[in-house]
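Researcher: Let's do a round of design. I'm pasting the structure tokens now; please hold your answer until I've finished.
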């Protein structure tokens, strides 16, 4: 309660006094606020410096608290790690510090031997630090362990490029990365933002990933999923190429009526159609200079052709990288002189993976490099190669091919009558369809001409046609083109039917016995990986315990031989634990070789998904809606929508997906072959590495 005077005059006076005091208080508050504002404004520019100074002082005293104080000599003693090649710089820094501080006693730096595991330190540049961070996210390398980032600088953007291959998309990503690298100093201040900071920190990663994606785009020959004849016209001819003389002047083909595409060849140089005689040149198909042939675009089997290449390439790239990972284990074992791991871990692993999957890569390379148009099966017994060189009139250059585009063998000048006298099945041309010739081979003095086995399984039956039936008579001889075998069937039958490969599936001579030998080697390598190392470690430990006990008895002959002292000799050894660990490693490696190889098929899957998404966006928006109309406004809208889809879905989501899959391929499929990742990082005292102060 407040006491108020009774009279009105006194009440007015009291009210006036209160108002005067309120005005005085307002003046004081206003003056104080203004003074505080001026004061804070004057020190605002210094707060950041004070904050840094306090942070540095705090870090210094925190580090000094880790020192030991020597009471006797009244000095501080510190133990720490430093790079060996930085010792001269550290000594010079300590000398300068002693001079500046005016210390009467110089700082002493000595190297102390210790059994502790040193930290791991890799010097990184702006280009490699991003890839080093990718490796460190999996685990810090053990001291002196091989650093996977050496490979990751190239393999990571390469695998990303395989999955994200497109010239247009790769160029856009390269452009973003190049701009971030060129303007890295002005953009450094914006890197404090979390989202932009991630892009800024990986700017060189983005640049390399974009360059490799562009390179893969040239291999796929696609710009925003649209095939382009960048290096040459397509090697495939069709009736639509009215202005291409190489396509129109091929004998035996009417460009106006043909519904099939045909490859460009040098058949006009290999055979003189005017003189009806051979020039003894081999007929070869023209090959597109670089990348995929754009002639496959808009064909019914486009996906089949592209997927076949990409799937096989994914297997080749995966096996090569996994073998490189096992070889990195070799580098570790040689450096640490670990002969036990070298002979009983590395050798079984490298033998196992190459006896199965290295062999698969060899089959892929053989299938790619074989000219299947000149590969034939003779008498269902052997494979022969007959280059497409046309026969002389006297057949003196057999094996060779008959003159091209003769439906009837009898019409061939020179040797036509001889061929017409052969059994009826010895002719490769179907009725009404003339081809570029039939292969001719000489077997045991007998002339055999290529047969057409389409729809006739009797000819490929070795009970009807074989080497024995051919020796009995010419009617029992057969020769036909070999179809490229399925590698998946070959790999399955390698285990289901060991030692046997049918002649139709044969890629290399002696393939059946070779596969049986490889399977035997692979099976032997599994117990070699599982058993020797634990048993040898057990024997070494027992020998160590035995000789340690004898040494103890020699020094104390009065004590019983069963006395203590075993625990003083070496580390504790548990055979069961070592055996279980080696068993887990063996099972994981053997099964991992299968699953990891299959995992690399994601290179094909993501490349297919990326190409198909890009093609759908282009075809369904710009081509069908935009270009299909006559409205410029609708064309603008569809192009704008396509741009949004390209940037948002393909450049955003698809690039992130490819990045994560490349990350997984390195962490799981590559690094687990050799990388321990159980070390700890070297963190030197540095003001530059101080974190930003928190409130």
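Researcher: That's everything. Go ahead.
Model: Designed sequence:
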């Amino acid at each position: 309660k407040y006491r108020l005077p009774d009279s009105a005059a006194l009440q007015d006076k009291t009210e006036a006094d209160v108002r005067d005091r309120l005005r005085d208080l307002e003046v004081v508050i206003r003056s104080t606020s203004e003074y505080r504002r001026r004061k804070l404004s004057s020190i605002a520019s210094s707060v950041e410096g004070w904050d840094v100074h306090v942070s540095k002082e705090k870090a210094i005293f925190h580090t000094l608290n880790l020192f030991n104080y020597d009471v006797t000599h009244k000095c501080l003693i510190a133990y720490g790690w430093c790079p060996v090649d930085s010792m001269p710089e550290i000594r010079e820094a300590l000398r300068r510090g002693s001079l500046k501080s005016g210390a009467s006693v110089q700082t002493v730096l000595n190297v102390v031997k210790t059994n502790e595991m040193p930290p791991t330190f890799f010097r990184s540049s702006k280009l490699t630090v991003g890839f080093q961070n990718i490796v460190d996210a999996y685990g810090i390398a053990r001291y002196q362990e091989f650093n996977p980032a050496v490979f990751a600088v190239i393999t990571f953007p390469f695998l990303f490029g395989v999955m994200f291959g497109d010239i247009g998309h790769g160029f856009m990503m390269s452009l973003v990365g190049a701009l971030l690298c060129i303007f890295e100093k002005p953009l450094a201040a914006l890197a404090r933002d979390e989202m932009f900071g991630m892009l800024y920190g990986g700017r060189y990663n983005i640049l390399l990933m974009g360059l490799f994606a562009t390179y893969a785009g040239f291999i796929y020959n696609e710009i925003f999923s649209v095939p382009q004849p960048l290096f040459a016209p397509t090697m495939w001819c069709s009736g639509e190429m009215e202005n291409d003389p190489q396509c129109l002047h091929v004998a035996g083909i009417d460009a106006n009526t043909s519904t099939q595409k045909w490859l460009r060849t040098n058949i006009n140089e290999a055979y003189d159609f005017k003189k009806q005689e051979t020039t003894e040149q081999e007929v070869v198909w023209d090959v597109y200079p670089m990348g995929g042939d754009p002639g496959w675009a808009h064909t019914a089997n486009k996906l089949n052709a592209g997927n076949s290449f990409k799937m096989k390439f994914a297997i080749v790239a995966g096996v090569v990288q996994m073998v490189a990972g096992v070889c990195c284990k070799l580098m570790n074992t040689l450096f640490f002189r670990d002969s036990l791991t070298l002979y009983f871990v590395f050798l079984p692993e490298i033998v196992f993976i190459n006896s199965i999957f290295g062999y698969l890569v060899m089959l892929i390379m053989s299938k790619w490099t074989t000219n299947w148009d000149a590969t034939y099966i003779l008498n269902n017994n052997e494979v022969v190669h007959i280059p497409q060189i046309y026969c002389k009139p006297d057949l003196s250059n057999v094996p060779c091919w008959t003159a091209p585009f003769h439906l009837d063998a009898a019409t061939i000048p020179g040797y036509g009558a001889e061929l017409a006298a052969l059994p009826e099945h010895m002719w490769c041309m179907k009725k009404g369809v003339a081809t570029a010739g039939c292969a001719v081979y000489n077997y045991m003095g007998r002339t055999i001409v290529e047969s057409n086995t389409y729809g006739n399984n009797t000819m490929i039956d070795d009970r009807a046609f074989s080497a024995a039936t051919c020796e009995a008579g010419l009617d029992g001889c057969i020769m036909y083109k070999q179809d490229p075998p399925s590698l998946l069937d070959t790999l399955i039958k390698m285990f289901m039917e060991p030692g046997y490969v049918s002649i139709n599936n044969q890629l290399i001579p002696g393939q059946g016995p070779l596969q049986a030998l490889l399977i035997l080697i692979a099976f032997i390598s599994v117990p070699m990986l599982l058993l020797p190392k634990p048993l040898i470690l057990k024997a070494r430990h027992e020998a160590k315990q035995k000789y340690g006990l004898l040494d103890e008895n020699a020094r104390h002959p009065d004590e019983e031989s069963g006395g203590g002292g075993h625990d003083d000799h070496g580390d504790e050894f548990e055979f069961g634990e070592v055996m279980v660990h080696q068993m887990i490693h063996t099972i994981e490696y053997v099964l991992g070789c299968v699953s990891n190889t299959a995992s690399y098929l994601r290179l094909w899957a993501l490349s297919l998904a990326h190409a198909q998404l890009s093609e759908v966006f282009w075809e369904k928006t710009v081509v069908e809606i935009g270009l299909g109309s006559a409205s410029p406004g609708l064309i603008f809208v569809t192009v704008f929508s396509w741009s949004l889809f390209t940037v948002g879905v393909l450049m955003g989501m698809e690039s992130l997906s490819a990045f994560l899959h490349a990350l997984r391929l390195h962490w799981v499929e590559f690094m687990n072959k050799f990388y321990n990742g159980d070390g700890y990082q070297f963190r030197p005292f540095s003001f530059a590495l101080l974190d930003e102060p928190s409130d």
